[in-house]
Amino acid sequence: MNRNYNYLIGNQFAKGNEPNQTSFKKGLTPWNKGKKGTHFSPATEFKKGQEPLNHLPVGTILQRTSRKSGTRNWIKIAEPSKWELYAQYVWKQHYGFLIVGDVTHHLNGFRLDDRIENIIAFPRSDHPIFHNKWWLKELTQEQLGFYRNRYTLERNRQQGLL
User: Fold this and answer.
1) pLDDT, position 87
2) CB proximity list for 94: less than 8 A, separation 6 or greater
């Protein structure tokens, strides 16, 4: 069965006819040549250097939700868009630094409780031990002391006291 699909190709009504009076002829330059775009209302258009409506100042704390880690607090620490986990920020404010490769862990398991008493930092390699298949393993006082003393020793080492 042969069908004729010529009606689908281009404008068949204009084939063989003269173009209408409003179309561009060869040699004519269009009115918008060299322009970047039409500006019908330049007074209300975006201007460079204008602060967006959703801009947040430094120090803003937001709660972000992800599928992997749930809801966490984030703080804006610098412009234009530098964010940090609030638990890490609190730890750095208290101890001055976070050892490379360490993660912050919430002792009570509630990720929005970012008090310094509830946060401990330890190596990423030790972190899965405290999140086993039976949920949260409690840290003993000896373990808490050991992980917190790492930061005291590291600070003394950086200051040249050790």
Assistant:
1) 95
2) 116
